[in-house]
Amino acid sequence: MTAARTSPLAERPQLGLRERKKIKTRRAIRAATYELIGSQGYEATTIEQIAGRAEVSPSTVFRYFPTKEDIVLTDEYDSVLEEQLRARPADEPWLVSLRYVLRNAIGLSSAEEPEVTRLRGRLMLEVPAVRSRMIESLSETGRLLSRVIAERTGRDAADLEVRVYAMSLIGGLSEVTVYWAQNDFKDDLTDLVDRTLHVFEHGLPALASS
Questions:
Q1: Do residues 197 and 204 make contact, with C-beta atoms less than 8 angstroms apart?
Q2: Which parts of the chain are beta strand (E)?
């Protein structure tokens, strides 16, 4: 596993020094967690060990991440996703905007930490506690998407239709990670996302006739 690195997200000029330090601390905790899990497994890794490796106190770890599962699942891309979606042209079809932003996010994540991306996928697949927490955490990302979808469509983010659509997207995209891990990461992740969004655009493809 690689050591903690400075993320381009932490270097964005609009962020203050305090926020950049917070991002670097989160990344140090995450990097320590992945290093320990990679060497000794998920269950054997403790918060105390993570804190020691990241050179912070256990209370600092808990301040940033309520549970060990949150360390595995949390990254700093949600806020960037929302920001970039809002920056897309207002008249651009919604799924075109989403495809563009997701491609950028996948490219950034894969370039920065490809080994971590795969380890996260394996943990989501193999560790029930991580998979359970992932399902819980999806609601927050769903609310994020609901806000952006509501703005683009002139609807209320609390509308049932908006919430169903947003959570359907989130569920589909989370299943991409599971599918990718189940197939030993052989597929290109961007292609899998494109296939997923194609289903939302055109429905379930018909079976080829024999």
A1: no
A2: none
